[in-house]
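User: two proteins, same treatment. go.

Assistant:
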Amino acid sequence: KIPYPFQFSHGPLASKESTRKKYGIPANAFAVFFNFDFRSSYYRKNPEGILHAFSKAFSATDNAVLVFKTMYANLCKSTSKQLHDLAAQLNLEKKLITIDDFIHQEDVVNLTNACDVYMS
């Protein structure tokens, strides 16, 4: 992780272990984190590119997982299905952890901290 080039106040961080447990991320996994809103620019955020890159980098790595923190998949059902179909085609179904919900900024910071890599 590269530290932010600026300081912001987010309060004390939850432990990596408790955050991983809360969101179903295995304790021993190498976790790659990606955050996007389905109502935002899907093609600019390029979640399909994230799936392809993760597949190329980690398909042979047993303990790697990709954590997608999303919002509004229920309002964009065809796009969400398209994304999950691609994950299936890339054999990533068991490596993909999807959190489709609003979570407070404090939890986003904790989730980012609990993962090993943030992919953008």
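Protein 2:
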Amino acid sequence: MSTPAGGLITVRLDVAAEHEAEFNDWYTLEHVPQLTALPGFLRTRRYFCESADIRYLAWYETADETVEAAADFQHIVARPTPWSQRLRRLYGDKRERMNFRLMREVGRTDFDDAPWMYIVHTDIPDHIVDEYNAWYDSEHLPRCAAIPGVLRARRYMSTGILGGTSDGPKYLTAYEMSGPEVWESPAALQARKTPWTEKMRSLFSNTRRALYRLIAPTLSHQQAMLLNRIRVE
């Protein structure tokens, strides 16, 4: 069983088509191993969404939400490698980094990487936050996690955006799924059809929804450390 991850760092990046091959090589060969080997990083995987405004998503699971502010991570941010410096010029303002704290997890943990993930970002008015969290935790998340094909559902709260230009929403929910059709299946539509859900969804603001396809499987902290050792040797 994987080590529980109490935190999450998401990074959305994109580049022009002529630089995509190099962009993905940089992520695979240098950037993901470099970051995932740092203390507090547990595992990393990458996703792609053709219809998103920024198509590539790196999903860094961390021990807790304090890892981003730690000296090891900030050192990497402040002193990028030459290859990272070049990529920064290529992706420019097509970048968003967010740091999250895990709020709730429902579902299995005994599976390999889910090939698809449906993500909902949203804000909610302050005066309704308590009811919003009660709805999610007691009704919505358990109902959605029980949909055939949904392997796990997790909720997060943002601790802020430390890079990029987007005014990102505060709350993130991620549904790991076996296929792209799961979220619009009859069972999924029924799970989301309750009076409480209708009320809460009418209060959402700054909402983003996207279906992501896995493009790079999990690299664990231990695997990343080994890759970095081999590279140095």
